[in-house]
Every structure is written in C-alpha cells, then in structure tokens.
Amino acid sequence: MSAAAVSQPALVLDLQIETGAGDVPSAVDFQRWAEAAWRGDGSAELTLRLVDEAESGELNQAYRGKEGPTNVLSFPVDAAELPGLELPLLGDLVICAPVVAREAAGQGKTAEAHWAHMVVHGMLHLQGYNHLEAAEAEVMERLETDILRRLGYPDPYREE
C-alpha cells in the first residue's frame, strides 16, 4: 500500500478523562460523534476533556462568569494565530460527566444520546455556531437534530 493510500482521519481527538464518573462513553463513540459534527474541509485536531463538577464550575466561572458546573464548555482556537502546526487546532471541549448524567436522567433520555448531543453541540460551537439569538438557535438546533438523526439518535429538543 502506498503512502498516498493512507488517509488522515478527519479529526484527531485528544481525549482526556479527568473524572471519577465510571459510566462514560468509549473513545470510539466520542470520535464518531465529533466527526459527524465536523463541517470543515480537511483534518483538524481537538481536545475533549471529561471532568467532574469542581473543574467545570471553575472553568464556567473563569470564562463565562457563571457560577456552578455546566454540561459543555467550548473553547475555539483561531488557527491563524498558530501557524506552522501539522494540523489546525479546532479547540477544546470540556464536558462535565456528572451534569450530563443528571440531565439525561432528568430529561428522560438515554445517557448515550445525551453524551452524543453534548459532543455535537460543542463541536458546532467550536465551528462558530451559536444560539444567543433566536435565528442562530434555530439554525444550530436544526443542524444538531440532523446530525444526531444520522447517528441514530432522537431529536434532543423534542419532548416525549
């Protein structure tokens, strides 16, 4: 097989598990969900960090000025500010495992479906999508729903 036949994955995922939560999805699942939400051309790299409530709360306070942990935080990187990298850096996603578990149970969703939603949601934020205004939220939610449906998950915004 020639070197040209070996392809680079769409995303190189640096998975960091810094949580004591025992029920987190596999690296294969995280990779699949992130790639499904990748809208860019070519390859990129991102870090996905799974944390407990203390770290999520500290980051939420420091970067958003909000108290307490949250489900997912997105830290996009402007690749133009980091020239010369082998792969462009997309950014970092920080997902709080206990919050995701609590939300899934509270919303009557499977944990897997909610984890997939958090990864897709965060990936879209890393790529510039937002939900601060109604029109932006509609676009982002439609994309999330379409991506999750292709992955075999129900609409995360539809109440059962």
What can you see in these coordinates?
The protein is globular. The protein has 160 residues and is α/β, with parallel strands linked by helices. α1 links the parallel β1 and β2 (44-51). It has helices spanning 27-37, 53-64, 97-107, 111-126, 134-150, and strands at residues 11-18, 44-51, 72-76, 89-96. Strands 1-2-4-3 form a 4-stranded mixed beta sheet. α1 (27-37) crosses α4, α3 (97-107) crosses α4 and α4 packs across α5 (134-150). The chain has 5 helices and 4 strands; from the N terminus they run βαβαββααα.
Structural key phrases:
160 residues; alpha/beta; 4-stranded mixed beta sheet; 5 helices; 4 strands
Strand/helix succession: EHEHEEHHH
> What radius of gyration results from the CA coordinates?
16 Å
Strand content: 15-25%
What profile does the largest beta sheet have? Answer: 4 strands, mixed
- Proportion in helices: 40-55%
Number of strands: 4
The global form is: globular
Count of DSSP H/I helices: 5
Low-confidence segments, given as residue ranges, are: 1-6
Mean pLDDT: 90
Strand arrangement across the biggest beta sheet:
1-2-4-3
Termini separation: 50 Å
Structural class: alpha/beta
Short précis:
This protein is 42% helix and 18% strand. It is an alpha/beta fold and 160 residues long.
Which SSEs are present, and which pair or pack?
Elements: E1 11-18, H1 27-37, E2 44-51, H2 53-64, E3 72-76, E4 89-96, H3 97-107, H4 111-126, H5 134-150
Parallel strand pairs: 1-2, 2-4
Antiparallel strand pairs: 3-4
Helix pairs in contact: 1-4, 3-4, 4-5
